[in-house]
Specification:
The complex is a heterodimer of chains A (about 260) and B (about 280). In chain A, about 85% of the residues lie in helices and about 0% in strands. Chain A has about 260 residues and is mainly α. The radius of gyration of chain A is 21 Å and the shape is elongated. Classes of the chains: A mainly alpha (about 260), B alpha/beta (about 280).
């Protein structure tokens, strides 16, 4: 019983210590970010590796998710004679929910894990220590550009995911199932609100971008500098950021659309 | 107290009553040592005695539990972020595996500190980098990526990078480990010649006795968190310290025991209960 309590206490202490270290790191990144302004090229380079290289998985997934939405939506709507509303169903599902959430989950798997592994290996091979000894702050030189690259890329990737998804839904709904072309687009145009739907979706993906990139960078920086340590950190990034995205999605949805 | 602090010039690095622990394990227990200017000073001892930790304490990457670490008259643990980074610009460190940045080539690795800390023109940076690469014999390897270099070449590139800002002090962390005899000879010669030609002060952390003794002006032997012997190479070979003799002669048993602490061998073999189940 005592051992169990000790174990529980140790786990809780570890959790709060990690939480504290994570917040300290975020503060360091934010406070050191002003140095990136004159060297924005560092961020652009990371936007390429974090964002542009994630494009393929986002495009393909967005297309298929949109096609599935088109198919499922049509089968349900046709029972009520409302298949003309397919464009609204597909676009609202994507813009409000699936775009930000699925692209954040894919981003965590593709870019988050890569960020953690890269930073963890830089730590294991003493590259971060070497930078410190060269009087170059690794938080400002390595972590901050990656953080802002993630924050910038995530909303763009989510927007691309939603746009491609709408086209996927169009292929299936209009191209294969015979929904009226004009109705698909005009219903979408009339019922999707710029602020309520699109802006809220963008805010969601912005929040997910911050959280996923923060977790990925923290796990890499906090990894035990061994191959096993980096492997565990990479796994933790994917698990924790996926759970965080899903949990935050509920909270944000409740705040945005709860009333 | 050290003997070599009787020299007129104050030491570049002055360590007094330094204590440092990792968890319950005490790594340093009130050690004193001085690194004299212009000299090559070696810190030697068996693996796990905290030699690398000592370099990290000097570089301000770790903070001591007690005692002082002064570099060029500045107390390293008391320096704020900005002053510490200013001091580090005058320090060079060669890491055990080179620690080259793997996403950029040899030239960019050596140019890295210059680009980060100076506003020199690309032409001048090129000249400086090629001069340093020439000094380590790798001017022709400037376009190679770190993954294309051998272990010895990586360390030489890292050495060029470490001295590119013309530091006042160079710290070498196990520079000879895992090197073939040719690379080892090259590194030994480079460390001594760079120290003398650039007017550096060097600290070598190593357990390679022959190579280190060949170039060190002064040697500290560490064990069990204390300085157990110090002096010139000749002093140490003539030392009556059992510990120094065991280390220098490479004897398997002595003050540093061969056996990890365990219960009596006979009891263990007969598995007599003595407080342990295994």
């Amino acid at each position: 019983m005592l051992t169990m309590l000790q174990g529980l206490g140790r786990t809780a202490l570890d959790f709060f210590q990690r939480l504290g270290r994570g917040h300290l790191l975020l503060l360091q990144i934010l406070s050191g970010s002003h140095t990136l302004l004159p060297r924005f090229g560092l961020v652009i380079k990371q936007v390429f590796s974090v964002g542009v290289l994630s494009l393929l998985i986002i495009l393909v997934s967005g297309l298929f998710v949109g096609m599935v939405l088109g198919l499922q939506g049509y089968n349900t709507l046709v029972d009520f004679g409302a298949e003309e509303s397919l464009g609204v169903v597909v676009s609202l599902s994507l813009v409000r929910e699936l775009g930000p959430v699925v692209s954040a989950l894919l981003f965590a798997g593709r870019a988050g894990s890569a960020l953690t592994a890269e930073i963890g290996l830089m730590k294991a091979t003493e590259q971060l220590s070497a930078m410190e000894m060269m009087a170059v702050d690794p938080v400002r030189r390595v972590l901050a550009p990656r953080f802002w690259a993630g924050v910038i890329s995530m909303p763009l990737l989510a927007a691309i995911f939603s746009a491609v998804g709408v086209i996927g839904g169009y292929f299936v709904g209009v191209g294969l199932l015979g929904v009226d072309d004009g109705a698909y687009w005009s219903q979408m145009q009339a019922n999707v609100d710029l602020y309520k739907d699109i802006l809220n979706g963008v805010i969601k993906s912005f929040v997910f971008g911050i959280v996923v990139t923060w977790i990925a960078i923290f796990e890499g920086n906090d990894a035990v500098p061994t191959s096993e340590g980096v492997s565990r950190a990479t796994t933790r990034t994917v698990v924790h950021s996926s759970l965080a995205v899903l949990g935050l999605d509920f909270i944000l949805t409740a705040l945005m659309f709860g009333s | 107290m050290t003997d070599n602090n009787s020299l007129l010039e104050p030491p570049l690095v002055k360590i007094r009553n330094l204590s440092f622990s990792r968890g319950a394990h005490k790594i340093f227990d009130g050690i004193n040592l001085d690194i004299q200017r212009g000299k090559v000073t070696a810190i030697m001892g068996p693996s796990g005695t905290g030699k690398t930790t000592l370099l990290r304490l000097i570089g301000g990457q770790l903070h001591p539990d007690a005692g002082t670490v002064e570099v060029d008259g500045q107390s390293v643990p008391k320096l704020g972020h900005s002053k510490l980074y200013q001091l580090r610009k005058r320090m060079g460190m060669l890491f055990q595996n080179g620690a080259l940045l793997t996403d950029i080539n040899v030239f960019d690795n050596v140019a890295f500190p210059l680009r980060e800390h100076t506003r020199l023109s690309p032409r001048l940076i090129r000249t400086l980098v090629l001069m340093k690469l020439e000094a380590v014999g790798l001017r022709g390897a400037r376009d190679l990526m770190p993954s294309e270099l051998s272990g010895g070449m990586s360390r030489r590139v890292a050495l060029a990078r470490a001295v590119v800002m013309d530091p006042m002090i160079m710290m070498y962390d196990e520079p000879f480990t895992g090197q073939d005899p040719i690379s080892m000879g090259v590194l030994v010669r480079l460390i001594r010649s760079l120290n003398d030609a650039l007017g550096l002060s060097s600290i070598i952390v190593s357990h390679d006795i022959q190579e280190t003794a060949a170039i060190a002006d002064y040697i500290y032997l560490l064990s069990g968190g204390k300085v157990v012997a110090e002096g010139t190479t000749e002093d140490l070979y003539a030392s009556e310290s059992e510990w120094a003799q065991q280390f220098l002669q490479g004897e398997p048993d002595g003050p540093v025991p061969f056996h990890y602490p365990a219960r009596d061998f006979t009891e263990d073999m007969l598995d007599l209960p003595a407080g342990g189940a295994n």
